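New to this. Please check both lines:
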Amino acid sequence: MLFHRRVNDKRHGLLLDHPLDAPSCCTVCAALCCRSFPNVDLSWGEYQLLERLGATRLHFSLYGPHKLIIENGCEFLVDNRCGIYEQRPEICRRFICRSD
């Protein structure tokens, strides 16, 4: 066979109403949520925390939510895992990815 058959694993992202702190959710993925969006919204407190943690891709806004730019991968990804898991933004805590 000349071409390998690629298995399509369809995944669906869900934004929960409440944070989910369960590291087991992230043990089998390839950090798709940290690569598939252009940015994530941040509160002022989250913006300040990420700035103290050394974030270089922050966007300050006077009129809307502040943002962490994650296009092409979040700068806090380390070996496909969140390097700031305990300090990650609330929107990251609320997002889960499920396969069909």
In short: The mean pLDDT is 82. Residues 52 and 59 are 14 Å apart (CA to CA).
